[in-house]
Amino acid sequence: MSIARLLPLLLLVPAITFADSDKNFKVAPDQFLAGSVVEPIANMAVEAKGTAMVSQKPAFPLKNFNLYWRHKKGAKEFVWIQGQPDLTNYVNLHAFSLADAHLLPSEVAYMRFYASQNMKAFQDESDLYFDKYYIYSPRVPRLFFIKNGRWQVLREAEFPGVVVFDTDKKDFSAAFKQSPLKKLPKAVFPLKADSYVFSYTAPGFLPVVDICSVTSRSVVVLKPELVAPDTASGEEVPGISMEVADVNATKNLEETEVLYDKFIGELQKVASFVDTMQFDEIYPKLKTPENLGLEKTDFNYREYVSAYEGTRMKAKSDWMHSMTLGVSEVNEAFNNKLDSLHALPLRVALTPVSVTPVRAMDSSVVDSASAPLKAVKLKFGQDRERIDVAWQGTAKDISADSLYKLFMQNGNEISVIVTIEQNKPVLLHKEGEFTGRHHYRYTQIEFKLGTQSLAGIGEFVLPVYIAAQPEVQRWLSVAHAAPWRAPQEILDVANDTASADASLPGYDNVNVPRIVRDSLLGPVALIDSGSFRYRGRVVTMSPFAIMTTEVTQRLYEHWMLAQEDTLKRIKDRSSFKSPLKPVHNITWDNARAVCQLMGGDLPTEAQWEFAGRADNNEGAVWEVDSNKSVDDYAVYRKNSYKMGKKSPAYGPQPVASKKPNAWGIYDMSGNVAEWTRDKYFMFSFWVESANPSGAVMGYSKVYKGGSWKDNESALNLTNGDDEDPRYWSDAIGFRCVFPRKLIEGRQ
Description:
The protein is of the alpha+beta class. Helix content is about 20%, strand content about 25%.
């Protein structure tokens, strides 16, 4: 942007600088006393350890399952104490939800709070408590504070509950999926009124899953029921005939699989024998929904049943292992051998079992048999065989009609070469019995006739019994938009990577979106309605769908080749060529035209930022993940541009090569910046309260997210820049949004 455009904002700086009318109603960081000895007070909600505690400076983010006490010693002296809650006093506090107020703990820690609006600046509350989700008062059911020069109010929320583990087992460990910690403390809080599923482990004991219901202000005491493996039987357990050396001696995948199937068969005999030792008698029983006050269809109860069954299987496996020493070593040898063999790519020559013409639907043609061909469908393998897949398409530089005639005239002489990304089939089981292995990682097809070689352009289609497997769905959902089409019966894909790393149930402003693999667009996130803090105010958003990755060159080519009207084809001018790298060197006008061709549009700036921040008040997603850094999430100047032109890391990288945000959306920061739909105008200060749509006036267009050329500071999701819509750069690409109903209707 030019200096002339920035001048009006520069003139505002002095006015903004002197406008901090809230400072008398804040606690300055230097007013917290570090190293100060604090005596316990009556009814203190933080558990006192000994006769005194030592104050520290506030540090963020706050830790899970810790309670923080801010105590006012004098007008400008405060102490900050961290510890476990004194449960007797904790449940008598008044709670105020930070999520409902769209506030962060790092903000409220430095605010002064008052019992009424008639208080003077120094008459703030002497004692307040904090955790990651609430602020607590020991005195009043309403708290007032000053923000932007005005009194604002926090109203009391439903008080959370607590779960306490009562066990004497050494090195006992409890966990549940809503926590980022692998091992929970003795007291787990704050928990909104709901049911929760926990898993328990301890050395020398079988793992167990439990469920409990938590109500407001309740302290639920759980006494984990852990049992040790029963090894009392003196009967001889059937053995395994092979050893680790036998596994290592196999020469290829086929030999290894034959030996592995024999191993599984012998292991099943061992399992049958061990089953007679009545594992069910020693393992805790599944709790019924009636005893928990829940319905059988309750989501958390179904989660409990699923987790219980999975953990019970593991417990039984552990129990069986204690009966069958040596089996685990052989199994590990098989795993290592198979992993190394599965990592190898595979090219196979296949003969189609059928060749079928696919004709275009044309209402002007009376006889459908005379309609023009749009593709050729090839079927490979037989039902339930290792290779069982169909392919539909044509070949580069020739028509579908020509390809079909080629097969009809020279079928026996055409060699069809199919490339499989890894020699790793999916293993299918039914009721515990192994039923077969099936390839699914097909990536390319080509046709050879004599010296002529033709690259296939089309899509593979797996039968439902293969495509429905979770392993297959996960592979299809990560950057494999083309050349794949999901079978009609496969509706959607659950997003396992999108976990709210540091959140508990009920605190999210928006549900974690469902990720579906659209048959035409690849992975798409279905965003629910919600609200977030945007440009200084809380705004609401309607539901929409957004691509989880930037538009790839492969998907772009797929859509352009599908356009029979050549005038609608927009050339891909990307300079860093790779099928899975994002399209770049594209103008705003062309990017929007492509999105509209797909049935969507470019996202508004608000839609883009709402999806990118994933219900997070920070502008950089790595700032809320203490175990990660910007390098885990973004391709940017330090790990790309600065590597130099000779490095493969230089330039845009394949999409989804970094960690996604909490909603499973990739590359919102870095890789390539992304066009949005909004116009930019210097004096556009108004922000609508619902679905902000940007400036009404203006010519240039907003782009967001920063790129592989930018420093970390430019990656902040709340920032943006603008350019002429005719501008293009190798640092700018795009992704599309769609009406949510459009995507759901196609599934």
